[in-house]
Write a structure and sequence with these properties.
mainly beta, Lipocalin, 10-stranded antiparallel beta barrel, 3% helix, globular
């Protein structure tokens, strides 16, 4: 399969669990329930938000490199964003997430070197932060599979957010 080109349409299910560590662990007000005076912070004792959506995309395999590409969810305000998860079959626990469009980003998840500087752009303003990879589970096959990215986001030396991103896919036939 090394030099063969595989390109398939796939059905994708994505689930993200996002825990705001800054407001759940470090803020005394948040320990009694998330800080009520801060907008867009999920409510509840653990300050965890769950995002789930389904979409279609493409799976491409060429010369040992796998790409899974899909459009982000419009309901989440990312309708003009296309995301690509990219990895080498020979190194499945190092995954690059590249976002193109209205909110470009380049995020690298790597179990061998878990702390990586990354960049995210909102409008015309890029900002840098660190991805601290806890675990990558990559169950790849050309027909169906899943990728789990368990990671923290670090800002100025403080872990502010814990994320568990799960992408499951299967080939669309017909």
């Amino acid at each position: 399969m090394k030099n063969d080109l595989i390109k398939k349409r796939i059905a994708i299910n994505i689930r993200s669990l996002i825990t705001d560590l800054e407001n759940s662990e470090f803020d005394p007000m948040a320990q009694k329930g998330c800080a009520p005076f801060v907008d867009n912070i999920p409510e509840g004792d653990d300050c965890t938000e769950t995002i789930e959506f389904s979409t279609e995309g493409t799976l491409t395999v060429k010369e040992n490199v796998v790409e899974i590409t899909y459009k982000e969810n419009e309901a989440l305000g990312m309708g003009d964003v296309e995301s690509t998860l990219r990895f080498k079959i020979s190194r499945p626990t190092m995954i690059n997430l590249i976002r193109r469009g209205a909110a470009p980003a380049s995020l690298l998840f790597d179990t061998e070197f878990p702390r990586r500087n990354c960049t995210y752009c909102i409008g015309n303003l890029p900002f840098s932060f660190c991805i601290c990879t806890n675990e990558v589970i990559n169950d790849f096959s050309p027909e169906r599979g899943s990728i789990v990215l368990d990671y923290d986001i670090e800002m100025h030396g403080v872990n502010t957010e814990h994320n568990v991103y799960t992408l499951e896919y299967k080939e669309l036939r017909g």
